[in-house]
Amino acid sequence: MKKRSLLAGLVGVLLSASVQAAPLTLDQAVERALKQDPRVAESEKLVDAARALIDEALGHRGLMINANAFIGLTTAKHGDIFEPGTTTLRRDAYDVDGLSDWEFLQFQIIKPLFTFGKIENYARAAQGQADVRRGDVRLRRGQTVMEVKKAYYGYLTARDTRAMLEEVQQKVNDAEKLVQNWLDTGSGQATQADLYQLQAGRAQVEKFIAQARAVENTAAQGLRLLVGIPASEPLELAEAHITPVADRTLDGKALGELQLQALNSRPEAAQLEAGLRARRALVAARRAELYPDVYAGVVGVVSHAGRRDDLKNPFLYDPFHQYGATPILGLRWQWQGAVTDARVAGAQAELDALNLKSSFAQKGIPFEVAEAYNEYQAQQQAVKALEQGSAAARRWMVASYADFEAGVGDGEKVMRALQGYALNRADYLRALNDYNMAAARLDLVTGQYH
Description:
2 domains; Outer membrane efflux proteins (OEP)
């Protein structure tokens, strides 16, 4: 059994290691980021806090217990209310003839019966606030998804750009060696100016490589931070190169359908609706403050002083010797006209402001969708055009370099071809990144959140 347990443990470790070493896909990166992003967890905790406000509001329906208890000292007294042997009232209330203990308890047990809607409306307002906070969680998750995609695509783009520049650098180095050999042998196929031109071009390429490597490292560090991969572990992506995402228009949805989808699916729309419900409930609750609360309950008191005689007369109040309790039915009314009116007016103003914001959102969200949709289509067309341009520029580079090796071209033509290829390829890679991010933004603004 011990051998089997040891073998199972080793197999588990190996499987775990293999899972950790597997290349990271974009979907996996997004899921890991959503699970470990503390900002998402913070938004979820704020939802819990809002739910606690609902429980707090509804808790006012339950029993409320007020109690005051203490142990203290008072003066010791013996006898009744008259001077000994007379009918003269005693006047030694403040004379100290010794000390006595004093135990006191006063309590109220109150149960609200009717509050004219205060509890219900405050609970509805808290529920609306909780719904708004839930929308914040979706918004935060959407922002995290966009950050992951930006880092993921940015890393692939920078890596491919660096690889392309290193290819160009190798071509420049080979051409420089070839020119130097021609100059050393005096073959006459190149001039000293060709060598200088290639050397100047190589310096420019090395600068661009350094810049691409810096962008690549920054994107990699950002991706590590978002998905929780420590610097000690390798970062390996499932995609070898950046490629265009699937066409978002293949589902046949027109712009109008996407705008309607956004209005129905965006968390902001749900938040506005929840906020309006909360504000309406708050206005109703503030107005209910004008009315009293009807309640029932029990009130009682217990008081005892060990070294004071108990006055048995029912018409005399003795604060040191008393006990009793009674059921009650009452009205509790805390009313400040100006303060209550101001609170109602403030809540109504906030409701009116939110109504105006909702009206603007009905126009703003469709515009945002149209903007993202137009940007997506523009980037899609740019990718198609630059893909052809990049392929043509590569053929230009290869042909020019072949002519140069054959001795029928000069250094200027080779550098123009290399520069043309580098610029066209870099533009194409950047366009791929912009296109993928435009598709991600289109998903975001139409309400396709994770």
